[in-house]
Design a protein that fits this description.
With 66 residues, the chain is mostly helical. The protein is built from 3 helices and no strands. It starts with a helix and ends in a 22-residue tail after the last helix.
């Protein structure tokens, strides 16, 4: 799907790297904005400042606020 979007020339994805979009589509996080933030943190390898303990189930996501 991502390759088709790039090839179309009429849609430009955000600055999120392609790996970030792959993570986004694979995450089991129901809320769209939470999934965007979590996938970006995972793709960039940075921790996410959040007190939402529901994200403890997202493998590889490091939270820095409890």
């Amino acid at each position: 799907m991502i390759d088709q979007v790039h090839a179309s020339g009429c849609i430009e994805l955000s600055a999120r790297p392609p790996a970030g979009w792959s993570v986004f589509f694979d995450l089991d996080v129901p809320e769209l904005h939470d999934r965007l933030i979590a996938s970006d943190a995972l793709a960039r390898g940075v921790p996410w400042a959040s007190n939402d303990r529901g994200f403890a189930r997202v493998l590889g996501l490091r939270r820095v606020w409890d």
